[in-house]
Amino acid sequence: MGGGWQAVDDYIAGKLLCADDALAATLANNDAQGLPPIDVSATQGKMLFLLAQIAGARRILEVGTLGGYSTIWLARALPAGGELVTLELEPHHAAVARENLVRAGVADRVDIRVGPAAESLAAITDDAPFDFVFIDADKQGNAHYVAEAIRLGRPGTVIVVDNVVREGGVLETDSDDERIVGTRALFDMLSADPRLDATAVQTVGAKKWDGFVLARVR
Ligand code: SAH
Ligand code: DHB
Ligand code: MG
Questions:
Q1: Alpha-carbon distance 99 to 147, whole Å?
Q2: Quick check: 81 and 56 in contact, CB under 8 A?
Q3: Using an 8 Å Cβ cutoff, are 178 and 139 in contact?
Q4: Looking at ligand 1, which atom is closest to the CA of residue 134?
Q5: 39 CB under 6 A from ligand 2?
Q6: Which terminus of the chain, N or C, has fewer Cβ atoms within 10 Å?
Q7: Residue 128's pLDDT is what?
Q8: Is 162 in the pocket of ligand 2 (CB under 6 A)?
Q9: Cα 65–Cα 20–Cα 205 angle in degrees, nearest 5
Q10: Which of 38, 41, 45, 43 is nearest to 67 (CA)?
Q11: Cα angle vertex 141, ends 77, 213, to 5°?
């Protein structure tokens, strides 16, 4: 069945996504420089692009850059004069991302901030409010990152959180996997926070069985 998911993703990408040298070069460079292949898929990247455009986003915040694959999709959704701030813990990931963003022609719109996201978020003052926030870093931090996205957002800000299903792992009540514990803490936070409307959508495809949270600040 997993093979079917990949084949259908390939079919969708072949029909609806243009062949893209900058994105292909990004994945090749990430691999050559030892980054893990945990970027969003091509069809998910285009979904992020579409959601940011539907939201009319002029200022985008991303938590978890890796090699900038999702960053490129989101940066391409910005209008002239738009800006994207992306937060990354690992200096090597940020350096590879910078190369990829330059090759893709979007480096002028993107500000990569290196360090623990919680610290970078706490230091943000004059870049807010953000219109669109994509959270895709350490899963332990997710509830805090959503709280920060609300603080740095405005009514109508769109928040997307990646990897909230983990092949059903989200149901493990007594997991000692801190990513599962963090994901469940995220759902607890979302269910209790009156400042958001939220859902989560399960996905299958190149990234197997997973899902994303979609939320809007009230
Ligand atoms: N959004 C990327 C994938 C991100 S993978 C894409 O789809 O292309 C997750 C990234 O989060 C990794 O690069 C990892 O180094 C980073 N990360 C992990 N913990 C972090 C933290 N505490 N603060 C900031 N980034 C973190
Ligand atoms: C992992 C992180 C991700 O953001 C992802 O999309 C897939 C896997 C991980 O930490 O294993
Ligand atoms: Mg992810």
A1: 31
A2: no
A3: yes
A4: 1
A5: no
A6: N
A7: 87
A8: yes
A9: 65
A10: 38
A11: 50
Is the distance from the beta carbon of residue 41 to the nearest atom of ligand 1 less than 6 Å?
no
Cβ–Cβ under 8 Å, residues 159 and 135: yes
Rounded to a whole number of angstroms, the distance between the first and last alpha carbons of the chain is 39
Blockwise average pLDDT, block size 10, the chain, 218 residues: 86 96 98 98 98 98 99 98 98 99 98 98 92 98 98 98 98 97 98 98 97 98
For ligand 2, atom 11, name the residue with the nearest CA: 38
- What's the gap in Å between 218 CA and the centre of ligand 3? 25
What domains lie within the chain, and their CATH numbers? 2-217 (3.40.50.150)
Please state, in angstroms and rounded to a whole number, the distance separating the CA atoms of residues 181 and 203.
20
Q: What share of the chain is helix, strand, coil (3-state, %, to 5)?
A: 50, 20, 35
H runs (alpha helix) in the chain: 2-16, 21-32, 42-54, 69-76, 91-104, 117-123, 142-151, 178-192
Token readout for 161 is 């959180």
Report the separation in Å between the CA atom of 85 and the middle of ligand 2, taken as the mean of its atom positions: 20
What is the identity of the amino acid at 132?
A: F
Question: Where would I find the beta strands (DSSP E) of 48-109?
Answer: 59-63, 83-88
Distance CA 51, CA 93 (A): 25
Nearest to 212, CA basis, from 7, 68, 44: 44
